[in-house]
Design brief:
The protein is of the alpha+beta class. The protein folds into three domains: 77 residues, Elongation Factor Tu (Ef-tu), domain 3 (Beta Barrel), CATH 2.40.30.20; 234 residues, P-loop containing nucleotide triphosphate hydrolases (Rossmann fold, 3-Layer(aba) Sandwich); 127 residues, Bovine Mitochondrial F1-atpase, Atp Synthase Beta Chain, Chain D, domain 3 (Bovine Mitochondrial F1-ATPase, ATP Synthase Beta Chain, Chain D, domain3). The chain is built from 16 helices and 26 strands. Strand 11 and strand 12 form a beta hairpin. The longest helix is centred in the last third of the chain and has 25 residues. It is globular. The N and C termini lie far apart (86 Å).
Length: 587
């Protein structure tokens, strides 16, 4: 059934009965769950979330002050959907995919009036369409029928919508078209344009979900070296205020080896989101040398925006990510932060007078988080291509308390946990990720990739580093009581090696031109240099050299300068020789 026919058959106006913040109750509205409606004289956009008898409850995506009982409610008969097609990259949207740049031009102001709307993609702009199939070819749902050069970095692939039957191509031609114009006609009467719509709360179909075997390389040593995430994996970054969640996500957005980045600013402070919106267009994509925005889609929904739109913004983001995944791209989705999303759910749930769960969050909090993260993964698409969506969600636990419900429920779902630590941040150790609390459950399935693409013994070296850092954590408890000098010399030396692991390897300067990104080969070589120091130092200790002499060799402090070396291979090779020679001369 076409959109127009379906809308006409369902549409029947109702009237507002009561208003409670973003929650509006309407009477006599013929509607179904999740239908989009327009509320009041100003036509504020909302969504049906509860139907009981003659009363329909609606969450409104805009400020409702001034709206009162008796005003009309108009039903569209369609669920909340996003516009998919060329023009989504290099765009900045709000939580329900309204293009903020376009609305600013329309309003001639940075402050938007209520009730203004615009399609998610420009329906008037023409795009150069190049066919990938010919007349007489058979196409099925999801198949790629042509391409469009969307940005300098990304080729947009025009696909048969997933809910089409498919058939034989009877007409197709190259040329410049708007997204609504037909570019392919099929023998069953179906017409394919560059524009698709898809309901945000429903996952796009795929053929098979596969086990991811390749890491999402981020260029951050503590992530790639100790706690890797797979392409198609899920990760959480919980941490208190000021510990570096947003900077970590910015680093991932800039450096992760994903084809497309979807950044969802969900309920974050306005100044942080302003920084993202101002910085991203100026950043150069280190992979291509082109602007980073040419492969990025931003969704900005700050904490002062209506609470209901915050609830929908993560669904908007994941649906856009799935669309690019269907083209065969690897997509990295950053959600900053899922705690604000959960708080929006809590506010709406309380206004609906639902039975609260732990700390007032709705009882379905865990289910909603699971639904979101479950849509990430490595997929074989219905058109035969392979694509992935990696979901990385920041969590902002109040007071840094990881035992609160959002963090705990997220931990049960995601397989990578990067725990940010306020104490590390205060000591100026960045990234402030606590290596004793963090973990990755992808290590085993990613080890073959590291063996093949980096070095054969990479997993063993990583495990050695983990063991040293674990031993340091135990020894620090003793040091607190009796002091470092009371320890046996071998344990004092272990603390020294752990210090170099922390300061030379795990610490990284996001604002240094060289140190901001560290490729896997460099990560391995830096770790190998510290392991060389460890082995030679313990040999010297066994030969009777005092621990003070070992710690004070001239070459050791050079370990701290490995990260900022452009020609790191030569520097590290010379440093390893220097360390070995200097220590061997001692005995």
């Amino acid at each position: 059934m076409s959109q127009a026919t379906e809308s006409d058959s369902v549409r029947e106006d109702g009237v507002i009965e009561s208003v409670s913040g973003p929650v509006v109750t309407a009477a006599d509205l013929d509607a179904r769950m999740n239908d989009v409606v327009y509320v009041g004289d100003e036509g504020l956009m909302g969504e049906v979330i509860e139907i009981e008898g003659n009363l329909t409850t609606i969450q409104v995506y805009e400020e409702t002050s001034g709206v009162g009982p008796g005003e009309p409610v108009e039903n569209t008969g369609e669920p909340l959907s996003v516009d998919l097609g060329p023009g989504m990259l290099d765009a900045i949207y709000d939580g329900v995919q309204r293009p903020l740049d376009e609305l600013e031009e329309k309003m001639n102001s940075a402050f938007l009036d209520r009730g203004v709307d615009a399609p998610g993609i420009d329906m008037e702009k023409t795009w150069e369409f190049t066919p990938e199939v010919e007349e007489g070819d058979e196409v099925a749902a999801g198949d790629i029928v042509g391409t469009v050069p969307e940005t300098e970095s990304i080729t947009h692939k025009v696909m048969v919508p997933p809910d089409y039957e498919g058939g034989e191509v009877t007409a197709i031609e190259s040329g410049n078209f708007t997204v609504t114009e037909t570019v392919v006609e099929l023998d069953n009467g179906e017409e394919i344009s560059m524009h698709q719509e898809w309901p945000v709360r429903r996952a796009r179909p795929s053929e098979e979900k596969r086990t991811p075997r390749e890491p999402l390389v981020s260029g951050q040593r503590i992530l790639d070296g100790l706690f890797p995430i797979a392409k198609g994996g899920t990760a959480a970054i919980p941490g208190p205020f000021g510990s570096g969640k947003t900077v970590t996500q910015h680093q991932l957005a800039k450096w992760a080896d994903a084809d497309i980045v979807v950044y969802v600013g969900c309920g974050e402070r306005g100044n942080e989101m302003t920084e993202v919106i101002e910085d991203f267009p100026e950043l150069e994509d280190p992979m291509t040398g082109k602007p980073l925005m040419s492969r990025t889609c931003l969704i900005a929904n700050t904490s002062n925006m209506p609470v209901a739109a915050r609830e929908s913004c993560v669904y908007t983001g994941i649906t856009i990510a799935e669309y690019f995944r269907d083209m065969g791209y690897d997509v990295a989705l950053m959600a900053d932060s899922t705690s604000r999303w959960a708080e929006a759910m809590r506010e709406i749930s309380s206004r609906l007078e639902e039975m609260p769960g732990e700390e007032g969050y709705p009882a379905y909090l865990a289910a909603r988080l699971s639904e979101f993260y479950e849509r990430a993964g490595k997929f074989e698409n219905i058109n035969g291509t392979e694509g992935s969506v990696s979901a990385i969600g920041a969590v902002s636990p109040p007071g840094g308390d990881f035992s609160e419900p959002v963090t705990q429920n997220t931990l049960r779902i995601v397989k990578t946990f990067w725990a940010l630590d306020a104490d590390l941040a205060e000591r100026r150790h960045f990234p402030a990720i606590n290596w004793n609390e963090s973990y990755s459950l992808y290590k085993d399935q990613l080890d073959p990739w590291y063996r093949e693409n980096v070095r054969e013994d990479f997993p063993e070296k990583r495990q050695w580093a983990v063991d040293v850092l674990d031993e340091e954590a135990e020894l620090q408890e003793i040091v607190q009581l009796v002091g470092k000098d009371a320890l046996p010399e071998d344990q004092q030396l272990t603390l020294e090696v752990a210090r170099y692991l922390r300061e030379a390897w795990l610490q990284q300067n996001a604002f240094h031109d060289v140190d901001t990104y560290c490729e896997p080969e460099k990560i391995y070589m830096m770790l190998d240099a510290i392991k060389t120091f460890n082995d030679e130092a313990f040999n010297a200790l066994d030969a009777g050299v005092p621990v003070d002499e070992i710690q004070n060799i001239d070459a050791a402090p050079k370990l701290n300068r490995m990260g900022v070396q452009d020609d790191y291979e030569e520097y590290i090779a010379e440093l390893e020789d220097e360390l070995a020679n200097e220590l061997r001369e001692k005995y």
